[in-house]
Design goal:
Layout lengths: L2 H10 L10 E5 L10 H9 L2 E4 L5 H4 L7 E4 L11 H13 L4 E5 L9 H10 L4 E4 L4 H8 L13 E5 L11 H5 L4 E5 L5 H10 L7 E6 L7 E6 L3 H7 L6 E5 L6 H4 L8 E3 L5
Parallel strand pairs: 1-4, 1-5, 2-3, 2-4, 6-7, 9-11
Antiparallel strand pairs: 7-10, 8-9, 8-10
This protein binds S-adenosyl-L-homocysteine (SAH).
The site of S-adenosyl-L-homocysteine (SAH) has 23 residues, from helix 6 and strand 10.
Amino acid sequence: MTIELITKAQTQRTSQAGQAGQVALVGAGPGDPELLTLKAIKAIESADLILFDNLVSTEIRALFPAHTKTIYVGKKKADHCIPQDQLNLFMVDKAKQGLNICRLKGGDPFVFGRGSEEQLVLHAHDIKTTIVPGVTAASGCTAYAGIPLTHRGLSTGCTFITGHLKNGKLDLNWPQLAHLDHTLVFYMGLGKLAEISEQLTRHGLDANTPAALIENGSTPQQREFVGTVSTLPTLAIEHQLKSPSLIVIGSVVSLAEKLSWRDLEQATKNQALSA
Ligand code: SAH
């Protein structure tokens, strides 16, 4: 069945008078529209209202149906264009009016995406929800950079860590992270890169551990820089990395050159900088 056929049936479903609408918390993946799931496309096509975040790429926004009301609800660091609690209540209100909402988020809604926080509020107001998982940045960006998250003999596991904490302090279990001996992926860590690098090496991670920075992963603007855990902060400054960027630390990064598969014209590769 084609996407058009699948979505047509959904699009024809309109909210019935008097009935509360539902909210689909949908992951849009890291940017490449072709990484959207069929369920995500269905949710986008069938919604009465789409509320989308900053990390939802321009190419994905271009897929929003022209007739559907869409609202940008932001969330760059300093640009919370609608505070989270107001947004939650806005969704409750609109769903109670009968609108089916697609709450579209970058990556996966349950990975540093506040999807679960929003769902808790919606359920507290008896609004029905569905969750549509998306390709999270850790797997999407690394795959597009030729870095496996695990590799037999190099990494037995992977940890996703936030580099951005509410009080601004990175209060992580550094001794444990430095000795996990597997792949570490930091989300929202660019602003704290110097601290991440310093803390990990101070607590025993080999300063020469391969590490990478991936900016705008999976989009045509992707840039990737390979170095070591100790050289990452300098790389980030030299190349003026910007958000969204992902930090990947671990032996698996050493495979990036061999496993690289994207068109060189599409992705800016900087493997030579790893010296
Ligand atoms: N829910 C999202 C994560 C939101 S937190 C997910 O599952 O991917 C936002 C952080 O995700 C960014 O600061 C960055 O570290 C990372 N990120 C998201 N998309 C990215 C992309 N295309 N390229 C690089 N990093 C990305």
